[in-house]
Amino acid sequence: MLLKPDALPRYERGGGARTTPLVTPAVGARSFITGYTSFSGGAEIPFHSHNCEESVVLMEGRAVLDIDGREYNLKPHEATYIPPGISHRFRNLSKTEPMKILWIYANASATRTITATGATHPVLAEHANPP
Fold first, then answer.
1. Angle at 10 between CA 43 and CA 114, to 5 degrees
2. End-to-end CA gap in the chain
3. DSSP 86
């Protein structure tokens, strides 16, 4: 199956971030999901954790990964590994240029728990019913 991101729906995540799910159960995935999240200049997502392993690859732009009280500057095509249950977030370092990440969750039923509130939701359910 070939998935063309330009033909797929995008969903607002808030704070200048938009997500495009790619490989999901809707196309037959049973053990992982993938997608892109694009960040406008200066955008950041809130601290959160997941119920499974996650890998994120910076596709374009300049990003920071905040995790375990540390900041990691990312260059395009560098990859991260984030264990389940570890609070983290990504930020766009540029105030004017866009940033884009590719995310991969090791569970087709991945959840996102917002650190500040403790609210947990299925990652893909957020895209089916965006806020």
1. 50
2. 29
3. -
Nearest C-alpha neighbor of 50 from the set 123, 126, 124: 123
Tokens standing for 82? 């984030």
In angstroms, what CA-CA distances link 130 with 30, 71, 72, 122, 124?
Answer: 23, 29, 29, 12, 10
CA distance 106 to 63: 22
Backbone angles phi, psi at 25, to 5 degrees: -60, -25
**CA-CA distance, 21 to 32, in Å (whole number)?**
12
Cβ–Cβ contacts within 10 Å for residue 40, how many?
16
pLDDT in tens, 67-89: 999 999 999 999 999 999 999 99
| Half-sphere exposure of residue 21: CA atoms within 13 angstroms, side-chain side | 22
Give the whole-angstrom CA distance, residue 70 versus residue 127.
29
pTM, full prediction = 0.90
**Residue 118 φ then ψ, to 5°:** 80, 0
Parallel, antiparallel or unpaired: strands 33-39 and 11-14: unpaired
